[in-house]
Amino acid sequence: MAVQEIMQMPTPAPPDKIHHSDEAAKWFLSVALFSLVVFGTFGLITAIKFVVPSFFAYISWMSWPRIRPAHVQGVIFGWLIPVAYSMFFYMIPRLCGTPLYSEKLGKISCVIWTIGVFIGTLSLLNPAGGDHAAGTLNLWLMTKGKEYEDYDVVSNVFLTAGVLLVAINTFRTIANRRYRQIYVALWYAMATVMWTALVYVIGNWPGQAIESTFGIPAAFSGTNDANVNWFYGHSVVGLVATPGAIALAYYFIPKSANAPLYSHKLSIIGFWTLGAIYFWNGAHHLIYGPIPYWLQTIATIFSFLLFIPVTAAVVNFLGTVRGEWHQLRYNVPLKFFVSGVIMYFLVSSQGSFMALRQVSGTVHFTDHTIGHSHLALFGFATMFSYGSILYAAPRMWRRPLYSEGIAEWSFWLSLIGVIIYVISMTISGFYQGILWENYNISFIDTVRAMVPFWHARAGGGAMMVIGMVLMAYNIYKTATSPAPADEVKPLSTGAANLAQAN
Amino acid sequence: MAKPQAEQSVFWLGSFTALTFIVAIVATGIAPSVNPHLNGNFSDEDHYHASYQYVNGQLVQVSSAKIDDSKPVFGYTLLQERGRLVYQREGCVYCHSQQIRPLASEMLRYRIGSSVAPSSDEREYIYDQPHFLGTKRNGPDLDRVGGKYSDDWQYSHLYNPAQMVPGSIMPAFTWLFVNKNPADPSSVPIPTIDARALVAYLQTLGAGREVYDPALNGGKGGWRPWLKLQDAVTNQTMSEDTVHRAKVPIIVPGGSTASSSVMYQ
Fold this sequence. Notes:
By secondary structure, chain A is an all-alpha fold.
C-alpha cells in the first residue's frame, strides 16, 4: 500500500475539532482501578496464607481455595479487561477521528460488566447463609470449579452481555471512521472483543448445571472437559489479555515516546500469526496428562511457533522506542512500556520452553507456573495498562497528573516487586520439581522446603500491591483535583506530546 | 492501492479473526472428543470402570459402573456425587491434581505399600463432570488416594490438617463439621453430610483402576485392582505410611482432646 498512507496512519483527527467526552472510558477506568486494589489484595492474602496458614483461617469464605480463584478471576475480569475497554474507548475515537458510537451504551456495558464481576466474586467466596452453613451447592450459583471459568452461570450472563455491548460500540465506532486505513491498534481492539465473546461462551457453557437440573446430556466430561477447559483457559490469556494489552501498546508506545511506529509490515505478521497460532496451545497445560498424545505434540509445536508473533511485536515496539531511550529517565509511561515489552518477551519464551515434555515433566504442577502467570499478567499486561492510563488519564480529565513522584514510586515498586515474585517462584518451581523426582522424599518435606521462597513471594507481592494502591490513588487524585484554569497546560510526562494529544 | 485489504475493512477483519477461532476449536476441541474410549460403552474393557469400591475397609466389586442406571450419576453414588460438589465448592482442585503422569518417579511417589500407582488413563474420567485434573500441586496428587487412609484419618485431616501432618499448609475445613455442644469440653466435632460425602468421594479415587498381572490365573495372566488388598487400609486402624503421619488425638475446640475413632457417628 502507499507509503504516504502508512505515514499518515497514526495521525488522528486534527486537534480541537472533536471534543471527546470519554465518559465510558472514565467509568471503566474507575471500575478497573477499584478491582485492581481489591483483587490485588486478595492475591496478597493468598500469599500470606501460604506462610501463615492460620491467617484468617476457620472462616469458610476467607479460606485459601475460595480467595484464590476470586483473585485470579478478579484481576482478569475486574481489572485487565475493564482497563483495556477503558483505553479502547479512549483511543478508538481518536484513531477514527469520530466520537464514540455511544457513550451511553458504553456506560451501560460498564455497569453490566461490573455487576457480573461482583456476582461472580460472590459465587466464588460463597459466603455461608441460612440453611447452607458452608455455602450453597446450587450449580447455577456456585463456582463451576474449572480454572478461568470459575464464575457462576449468573455472572457469565452479565459478562457475556457486557462484552457484546462493548463489541457493538467498538465495531460501530470503527465503521464510522474518517480514514479508510484501520490502524493496527484497532485491529487488535476489534479482535480482542471478538475473540473474548467467542471463547467466553464456549468456555463458560453451563453444561453441568443444565445436566443436573434438566437431566439432559449437555456437557463434555472427563478429559474432553479438561481439553475444552484449557482451550478456553489459554485463550483467556492469549486472546483476551494479550491482544488487549498489545492494542494499547500499539497506540500508547508511539504516543508516549512521540515517535512513529517502527514497521507496519511487522504488525501485520504479528497480528495474523497471533490469531492463527495462539488458539492451538491449550493442550500444553495437560502435557503428560491423560489426553491424546498427538494433541500434546501439536500444543508443543504451536507453543514454539508463538515466537513469530511475539518477536514481531517486541521488535516493533523496541524499534519504535529506538533513538528515544533518553526519555526513559523522565517518561514514566514509557518506563512501564519498555519494561513490559521486555517481560513480554521473557514470559513468552519461558512459556514455549515450558511446553517441552522434558521441562514440563519437572516444572508442571509447581510454583514455576505461578511465576510464569504473574510475569505474563502483571509483568506484561498490567505494566502496559499502567503505562496507558498514566498517559491517558490526564488527557481524559484534562488536567495534569496529580503526582509524577507517586507514579515513579508505583513503577519501581511494581517492577522490583514482580522481579522478586517471579524469580523466587521460578527457582522454587525448579527446586520442588527436582525434589519430587526423588520419590523417597516425603511430599510434606518438599512443601516445607518452599517456605523461604514463599516469604520472598509474599514480600514481592506486597510491593506490587502497594504499587497498585499508589497508582489508584494517583489517578483518583488526578480525576478529583480542580481543573486548571486554562485547559492547555502541560499534562503528564513527555509534555511535548501534548500538542498531538487532542 | 486498488485491492482492499483485510486490514481496511471491518467486515473482513472481523470475519478472518473469527475464522482463526473456528479452525482451532474444530481441530483441537471437537476432533479429540471423537474418541471411542470416551463414549462410556465398553464391552470387553470393563475393568477401567469404577467397579471396585472400598466399603468398610473391604474391596467390594459393584455390579456396574453406572451404579443407578435410572439416574445419570456418572458412575458415582448420590453421596459420592455430592462429595464431588463439595470438592468443587471448597476448591480442592486449586491445590490437588488428579492425574498420575507416566513418569517413573510419579508412579512410585504415589504408590501405596507395594502397589505401584498406574499412570492415569482417559477412560478413568468418563463420568467426571466437571473434571478435576488440576494444574497445581500445593498438596499431593489425589488420583490414587482412595483406600490409602481410613475415613477416620480423612475426617481428622480435613478438620485440622496440621495435626495429622505437621507443617501442612492445607486449610482446616472446620465448617464441614459441627460441634453440637461447644461448651462441653468432651464433645467432639461431628462431620456434616458434606464432609461424609467428600470422604466417600475421596475413597473412590483410583479405586476402579485395574492393572494387568501376568502371574494371575496360574500364570495365564489377568486383571486385578491396582491397590492390593493388603495395602488398603481398613476403617478401624489409622494408617501410618512412611511419611510423617503422626497419630495425634483430635484437637477439640475448648481445649480437650478425644480419640479420633469416636469423632463421628
